[in-house]
Amino acid sequence: MVSFGLHSKPNHSFEIKEATVQDLQLAFQRNQLTSRQLVEFYTGEIRRLNPLLRAVIEVNPDALHQADKADRERKAKAPSSLAALHGIPILLKDNIATKDKMNTTAASLALLGSVVPLDADVVSKLRKAGAIILGKTSLSEWSHFRDDIAPSGWCARTGHLTTMPLSASNLMSVLPVVQESSRSHPDKTLPMCRTVADAAYVLDAIAGLDYHDKATIEASKYIPRGGYKQFLNIDGLKGKRLGLFRDQFSNFDQGSVFAKTFERHFSTLRQRGAVLAMTMKEKTKEYGQKHFLDAEATKGIGKKEKEAILKLAKMSRDGFEKLMREHKLDALLSPSSSTSFILARGQYPGIIVPAGYDTVGLPFGLCFGGLKGTEPTLIEIAYAFEQATKIRKPPSFKH
């Protein structure tokens, strides 16, 4: 275990493994930690665990150089060193383009050795924020997009990795409105972090205009002045109306770990000031599924495809949006990621937060979804829930 004593609290230890962005920045300020030490620790963990997990495809050969640059800037008290992500290592999926010494292959050998023309917009923003691009992570080849027959989790560059949905990853993630972060890379960009606060810091760095993507101009109106970290509110559940799909939560066997856990969470939400509407049936999940499938089966944009897109928009207005407005909901709750496809296809924001562990220790989550532009409200809700429950535990790995 790598730990550093905090000068103001001699009996307290600082452990890198579970440190948040705020913890790391405090350690930087107190000269207890350098970005070089941080990168060396994480690359050591990758060497130790990657033979088991196959999660990281490659480490950036320039990561230590970037770390040294961050340390120099911090020592010189450069204005850029005050940014929340300055000197913080970040991993990127292998389908996010980086114009550097790393590959961008979408987990396919077909693109190995190809050179991208420029950084994806999200990478440019992360670099500007002072983040260290540590490496590229594995994913299903071509994001499991080109071939439904290929097994999920198959990566041509690393082999088959243990596949699980985001809600079972023991992490939390923000699914922002799709155009808030640029589409000038081949996949939706979403932060995956240990805490809601860390995800808010990343979202602050990557949200904004991309002049290569005109759609971000319209979506930029949803980005709050002052960023997202201002909504990390410990009392963020007070007065919030939360809707639950009754069918989804009642499907669990009474007495099961899932049923007991969610009942405890409902009690916590009420105690923290939230109002739960538990009478809705799961009709929203059905409202656009056929049209989603029809749209995904198309090849190119023709008359039929345009009609499908218009029908999807109408179904969104008459389904999810109507449900949210009629019940005056701030967010819709669902177990794990059971409604995430609705949010993703309809371009609605959502946050998945760790909610518990099953009988064999597999994590499961709780998803808070909302209408476009409600990321601030969802962050308030998710942060307050996270702080009230403190569910997440450090993962353990058995070799």
TrEMBL record:
InterPro entries listed in its UniProt record: Amidase_dom (IPR023631), AS_sf (IPR036928)
UniProt xrefs under Gene3D superfamilies: Amidase signature (AS) domain
Residue span(s) of domain Amidase: 38-144
Listed SUPFAM superfamilies: Amidase signature (AS) enzymes (SSF75304)
A Pfam match: Amidase
UniProt-recorded name of the protein: Amidase domain-containing protein
Species: Hibiscus sabdariffa
